[in-house]
Amino acid sequence: MVALLDLENIRDYIRKDSEYYAVRFVEKIIEVVESLEKFPERGRAVPEADEKSIRELLLHNYRIIYRVEADRVLVFYHNTWYPRFN
């Protein structure tokens, strides 16, 4: 349920500027997450996790973290991601 709350927060944040883009972006996140049903290994392993089953996909500046299990994919959360520049 945390992931659904994250989606609502993302939508509400983007909605401040544009209702249209808020809806479109949330639809894109849902589309990407649903694609994990067929391609669960498509994301990379999360660098700071000790388990290879914990993976992530990056969509613009949002990070979608999930765990691949034998019979399902569990999405933990969607979070803003900022790359580090040195």
Task: Tell me what the structure shows.
The structure is a single chain. By secondary structure, this protein is an alpha+beta fold. The protein has a single domain, classed as RelE-like (YaeB-like fold), CATH 3.30.2310. The protein has helices spanning 2-15, 19-35, and strands spanning 44-45, 54-59, 62-68, 73-80. Strands 1-2-3-4 form a four-stranded antiparallel beta sheet. α1 runs antiparallel to α2. The radius of gyration is 13 Å and the shape is elongated. The termini are far apart. The model has no long low-confidence stretch (mean pLDDT 85).
Give helix % range. 25-40%
For this structure, the CATH topology is YaeB-like fold
Q: How many beta-strand elements?
A: 4
Can you list the strand order of the major beta sheet?
Answer: 1-2-3-4
CATH class: Alpha Beta
CA-CA gap between termini: 36 Å
Biggest sheet statistics: 4 strands, antiparallel
Number of domains: 1
- The value of Rg in angstroms is 13 Å
- Class derived from helix and strand content: alpha+beta
* Fourth CATH level, the homologous superfamily: RelE-like
The global form is elongated
In the CATH hierarchy, what is the architecture at level 2?
2-Layer Sandwich
Low-confidence stretches: none
- Beta content comes to 25-35%
Order of helices and strands: HHEEEE
Q: Give me the number of helical elements.
A: 2
